[in-house]
C-alpha cells in the first residue's frame, strides 16, 4: 500500500529529507550491508530472454542517501553461455515504468517493453550477467522516489554486489540505462568511486539522456505526456518533505493519486493526465518554483564520472530536445569526464534503444577489453 496523505506514507517513513523503508522482514539475513541478498526465486521470463539466460528475482539491501539500509528488488539474469569464472556484469537501469509496485520490471516477463527485452538479451548473448534493479520502493514497501538519481544509483551499484554474491563474477562492470535509467546510470558514474568501492566501473551508457530537468519539466507540462510531471511530484514527496502533492496539484490533478501510487503504470498515468490541460493539473498551469528547484538538484553531470560516458539520443525524441543532450555533453566535459554523444536521425525516445544497440554492444565490449574510450570533450 503506497497511499500518500500529507507527509504520511503508508509502508515507509519520511524523516526530514531521508527516505526510510521498513526494517527487514522476519527471517531476513541479519547482515544488512549493501548488496546482501535477502531472497531469491526463479522468475518467469519470455522466450527471447529464456533462450539465452536463466533468471532470479531477488530482494537485496541497499541504502538511502542518508546511508540507512533499505530493501530493493530486481532481477539477476545469468547467461547460458556464461564463463565459469570471472564473468563480466552489465547493470541495466530501466526507463520510467511507474511508481506502483505492480510496475516493477522484475515482475514482468519482458521487462516492460519489447525494446528492453531485446536490449538485455543482446547483453546476455555476449556472456555478460545482467543485474537489473527495480530502484527503491518499486516492487518493495514504500513510495518509489522517482527522479532521485543518488538513490537509484545506489540501488544499481548494490544490484551488482548482489549478483556477485550469487555467482563467480568479475569486479569489472558497466551500467547501461535508458530514460529514467540514463539518470541512474549517469549518477552511478558520479558515485562509483565513493559508494562503489570494491567494484571497477568500466563504462556508462546513457540512452535518451538529458540535462536541465527543470526546463524539461516545464516543456513536458505543455505536452500530452504531462503525466511525467505527476510522477516527479509524487516521487519527490518520497524524499523531500517540502513537496506536498495535494498542495501543489489542483483537486483534479491530485484526484489521480491512487492511480499514480497504487494501480496505474506508465501508460495508465500518461493517458489519464493527457485529458487535463496544464491549468487543470496545476494552479495557473505552472510548476511551482520550489518543485523546479528540487528537480534541478537531480540533474546529472554534477561531478566527474568515474568511467567513460556514452550518450545516445534520437533526433525525433519528443521528450528530450537535442540541445538538452548537447548541454549534457558540455556539462560532462566541464566536469572532466571522458564522454561522447551520438544522435540517431529520426529516432524516437524509446526507439533509440534498438537504434543504438550495435554501437552500445561495441562500446561495452571495448570498455571490458580496455580499449581507450572515444572522447568528444576538448581538453
- Ranges where pLDDT stays below 50 over 5 or more residues in a row are 1-29
Helix content: 25-40%
Mean pLDDT: 91
CATH class: Alpha Beta
CATH H-level superfamily: Alpha/Beta hydrolase fold, catalytic domain
What is the number of E strands? 13
Order of helices and strands: EEEEEHEEEHEHEHEHHHHHHHHEHEHH
Number of helices: 15
Class derived from helix and strand content: alpha/beta
The Rg value, from CA coordinates, equals 19 Å
Strand order of the main beta sheet, please?
5-6-7-9-8-10-11-12-13
State the separation between the terminal residues, measured CA to CA. Answer: 51 Å
Strand content: 15-25%
Number of self-contained structural domains: 1
Explain how this protein is built.
The chain is globular. The chain has a 9-stranded mixed β-sheet, with helices on both faces. The protein has a two-stranded antiparallel ribbon with strand order 1-2. Strands 3-4 form a two-stranded antiparallel ribbon. The chain is built from 15 helices and 13 strands. Strand 1 and strand 2 form a beta hairpin. The protein has a single domain (4-212, 296-369), classed as Alpha/Beta hydrolase fold, catalytic domain (Rossmann fold, 3-Layer(aba) Sandwich), CATH 3.40.50. Helices cover 34% and strands 21% of the residues. The longest helix is centred in the middle third of the chain and has 18 residues, at 149-166.
Amino acid at each position: 500500500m503506497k497511499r500518500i496523505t500529507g507527509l504520511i506514507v503508508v509502508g515507509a517513513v519520511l524523516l526530514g529529507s531521508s527516505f526510510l523503508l521498513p526494517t527487514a522482514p522476519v527471517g531476513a539475513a541479519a547482515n544488512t550491508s549493501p548488496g546482501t541478498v535477502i531472497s531469491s526465486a526463479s522468475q518467469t521470463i519470455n522466450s527471447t530472454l529464456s533462450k539465452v539466460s536463466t533468471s532470479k528475482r531477488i530482494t537485496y539491501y541497499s541504502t538511502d542517501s542518508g546511508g540507512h539500509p533499505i530493501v530493493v528488488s530486481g532481477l539477476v539474469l545469468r547467461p547460458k553461455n556464461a564463463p565459469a569464472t570471472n564473468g563480466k556484469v552489465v547493470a541495466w537501469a530501466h526507463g520510467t515504468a511507474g511508481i506502483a509496485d505492480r510496475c516493477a520490471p522484475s515482475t514482468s516477463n519482458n521487462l516492460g517493453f519489447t525494446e528492453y527485452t531485446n536490449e538485455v538479451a543482446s547483453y546476455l548473448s555476449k556472456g555478460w550477467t545482467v543485474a537489473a534493479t527495480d530502484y527503491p520502493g518499486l516492487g518493495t514497501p514504500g513510495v518509489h522516489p522517482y527522479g532521485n538519481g543518488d538513490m537509484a544509483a545506489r540501488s544499481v551499484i548494490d544490484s551488482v554486489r548482489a549478483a556477485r554474491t550469487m555467482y563467480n563474477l568479475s569486479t569489472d562492470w558497466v551500467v547501461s540505462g535508458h530514460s529514467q535509467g540514463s539518470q541512474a546510470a549517469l549518477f552511478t558514474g558520479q558515485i562509483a568511486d565513493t559508494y562503489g568501492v570494491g567494484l571497477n566501473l568500466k563504462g556508462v551508457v546513457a540512452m535518451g539522456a538529458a540535462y536541465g530537468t527543470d526546463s524539461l519539466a516545464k516543456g513536458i507540462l505543455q505536452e500530452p505526456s504531462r503525466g511525467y510531471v505527476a510522477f516527479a511530484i509524487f516521487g519527490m514527496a518520497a524524499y523531500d518533505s517540502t513537496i506536498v502533492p495535494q498542495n501543489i496539484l489542483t483537486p483534479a490533478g491530485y484526484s489521480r493519486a491512487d492511480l499514480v501510487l497504487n494501480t496505474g503504470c506508465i501508460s495508465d498515468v500518461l493517458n489519464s493526465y493527457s485529458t487535463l490541460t496544464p491549468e487543470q493539473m496545476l494552479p495557473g498551469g505552472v510548476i511551482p518554483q520550489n518543485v523546479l528547484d528540487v528537480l534541478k538538484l537531480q540533474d546529472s553531470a554534477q561531478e566527474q564520472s568515474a568511467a567513460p560516458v556514452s550518450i545516445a539520443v534520437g533526433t525525433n525524441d519528443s521528450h528530450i530536445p537535442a540541445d538538452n543532450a548537447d548541454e549534457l555533453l558540455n556539462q560532462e566535459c566541464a566536469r572532466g569526464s571522458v564522454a561522447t554523444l551520438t544522435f540517431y536521425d529520426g529516432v524516437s525516445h524509446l526507439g533509440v534503444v534498438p537504434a543504438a544497440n550495435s554501437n552500445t554492444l561495441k562500446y561495452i565490449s571495448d570498455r571490458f577489453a580496455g580499449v581507450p574510450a572515444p572522447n568528444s570533450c576538448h581538453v
